[in-house]
Amino acid sequence: xxxxxxxxxxxxxxxxxxxxxxxxxxxxxxxxxxxxxxxxxxxxxxxxxxxxxxxxxxxxxxxxxxxxxxxxxxxxxxxxxxxxxxxxxxxxxxxxxxxxxxxxxxxxxxxxxxxxxxxxxxxxxxxxxxxxxxxxxxxxxxxxxxxxxxxxxxxxxxxxxxxxxxxxxxxxxxxxxxxxxxxxxxxxxxxxxxxxxxxxxxxxxxxxxxxxxxxxxxxxxxxxxxxxxxxxxxxxxxxxxxxxxxxxxxxxxxxxxxxxxxxxxxxxxxxxxxxxxxxxxxxxxxxxxxxxxxxxxxxxxxxxxxxxxxxxxxxxxxxxxxxxxxxxxxxxxxxxxxxxxxxxxxxxxxxxxxxxxxxxxxxxxxxxxxxxxxxxxxxxxxxxxxxxxxxxxxxxxxxxxxxxxxxxx
Length: 409
Fold this sequence. Notes:
- By secondary structure, the chain is α/β, with parallel strands linked by helices.
- About 40% of the residues lie in helices and about 15% in strands.
């Protein structure tokens, strides 16, 4: 039964929830924070080399950036501020029983609406992201709406193996379809018989798998659509910006993909390395935040995400998806989506996919091209990101959206 104890804004659980939800507050033990800071202080930064003098040489994060980040992490960053931001939203944990009888403890953030016709939308993060990606978007929504007029139920889960959700089992392989199945069961447990999915990075795969597999998933919106170039699309179908940014994807596959190969082929080894030093973990994660975006992501945001990974020991259990052949997934015939599909093109995505390509992967009913923003769109451009989702929802509701096929600055 739904608990009746929630009184905070956006915490009134829908009355038809038939599953036990536990209110959850993030609180890391003070000793664990002390230990992390001790390791940061004792972790050396590699000596000066030709390769680490500047990030522009393309060899990774610069030594000076690492020195400055370490100093800020120790003396200018407070994890408790991150905790307070997370805890300012309704947080829940619930136990989901899988098809084989195993139980999984899953964590999610929510903005529950009190409207009877509110549409559930679940936002799925990827790697090296987390629930923190969606906090700016959730800030915007709770400023724009009240619990009485919010048109949506916003659900932001921590994927299995990330953050405060339980990791995959130790005795069997775990795949994206398994993660997707748990997410589906989670959404059904909240009493929803219809929901919408949104995702980027790994979350885009989860979103599409849900939409293709389960009747209850009515539509999905993506800001990442990794796929091979369709032979049926000519270059003339691309906008000038789309055509220009294709070279970015080519450079990524040539020079930026080695990390994924390592995750896929030696996940145990890299997990040992990055579990030994928070500074090493910072270098590994920060490189992606810096190189996969064009809008500067603030250092405190990068430190918060790295701290979340470190304090929850997420890295070893978060890279299981890399063992799957993901590259052409969205373009595969079995992944074709007959349901409504929305797509946002952010030009500094690490693998930019033109609208005409995305249209070959499903029944594309809404798309928008942006002139800035990259892989972490929800962090880089939260207003544009949630604006796209709301416009897509407007199309689903049958409203006339003038910018349905427009381009945005």
